Amino acid sequence: MKKIILLLFIAIIGFSCSGGKSVKISVKNDSAIDRENEIAEISMSSVTEMLGLSDTAQFVILDAQGEQLPYQLTYDGKLIFPVTVKANSSVEYTVQAGIPEKFDTITCGRQYPERVDDIAWENDKIAFRTYGPALQATGERAFGYDIWVKSVAEPVVEKRYEGELNPETKARISELKKTDPKAADELYKSVSYHVDHGNGLDCYKVGPTLGGGTAALMVNDTIVYPYCYKTFEVLDNGPLRFTVKLIYNPLIVNGDSVVETRLISLDAGSQLNKTVVTYDNLKETTPVVAGIVLHDPESSAQYKVSAEKGYVTYADPTDNPNNNNGTIFVGAILPTAKDAKAVYFEEKEKNDLRGGADGHVLAIADYTPGSELVYYWGAGWSKYGFDTIEDWNAYIDEEASLKSEPLTVSIIK
Q1: What is the chain's alpha carbon radius of gyration, rounded to the nearest angstrom?
Q2: InterPro entries from the xrefs (predicted)?
């Protein structure tokens, strides 16, 4: 009896300390697919209004078992948190005042001015990179997204850059090259992010192509390649979502100076980035593609296209297939696609302009001036979650279906 009274007393104290208020959030899954650790979102203002919390008040999110969940407040006023909901069912979560536990950062990124203005970001599944103005100033032509594979859940990108760019190590390698090239090579390999040190590596080749899923306008069946971003702003930086806004230098499209803006978001647990693209000063409806570079002339069996579901996939052999680097699986989902196909370069373009790449597999849609193009792109690795191209294709096919059936998140009043 004393134990029951003590537990009741603790419960009453906890309830009174939270102000006696809580908000129930319903997450409904109308699809026929189980959703596991998917990031749900709801307007934060609607939650605080119901709770009567101040902007500085602390709160917690609890699942049905009363366990705390990690959460994040995003730049656009959303409260996001991971949910698991069975097919054709719903789950309730509780928000109330309280002291949140400290959860690990899963998704994060930043600009690396020390590496020609790269912006690199990652979650627990995969990592990505896009190139900046300092690289463009060198004259190197790199238009697309880069993919960094990983085989651990914790962040790895920061340590990879630290190893690759350490000035003392670089100086030592430079000195050794003069006297002991073999030792220099061994030291380089011991710190390079192009070598797998147990958590993955950079073994994807972008070159002067669309790389791992970049969007681009297409005029008269010719891709208008975007170059590196001009300005950036990191809007969200973990623990569950990374968001960056990129603005590009003007491109001439049908005689007009067109400025592209991208809003790229990566959530914890997902292989795919959500990207919102706009083209300012575009005067007429223009085809747009989401493209993946092809690196193997015999690759027809290694890609899949679905115009109906708006996706393309590819099994990339990596930039050094003989180095046991596995296979990088790449995909893009363009929900408004009207066509999807592989397009191969003519021999001259392949060798003179595209760094030896064979072509692209493209999802193609129409972009209407003043609108937003929303699409998804990303990758997986044969050494971390996807054994075969069939596994990857099944993942992308399922994700394409789920994009048309988002979770319904609402406050229970």
Answers
A1: 24
A2: DUF4861, Gal_mutarotase_sf_dom
> In 44-124, where do the E strands start and end?
59-62, 72-73, 78-85, 89-97, 108-112, 118-122
Question: What are the Cα distances from residue 75, in Å, to 40, 44, 68, 100, 320?
Answer: 15, 11, 22, 20, 40
Asked if residues 25 and 51 have their Cβ atoms less than 8 Å apart, the reply is no
Q: How far is CA 11 from the centre of its chain?
A: 41
The mean pLDDT value for 315-327 works out to: 92
Q: What is the pTM of this model?
A: 0.93
Chain segment 231-266, per-residue pLDDT in tens: 999 999 999 999 999 999 999 998 999 999 999 999
Q: Which 8-state DSSP code applies to residue 384?
A: B
The CA distance from 295 to 302, in Å, is 11
What confidence tens digit (pLDDT) does each residue in 210-222 have? Answer: 999 999 999 999 9
Alpha-carbon gap, residue 343 to 361, rounded angstroms? 6
For the stretch 168-216, pLDDT in tens is 999 999 999 999 999 999 999 999 999 999 999 999 999 999 999 999 9
345 residue type, one letter: F
Q: List the domains of the chain with CATH numbers.
A: 2-103 (2.60.40.1180), 108-155+202-403 (2.70.98), 157-198 (no CATH)
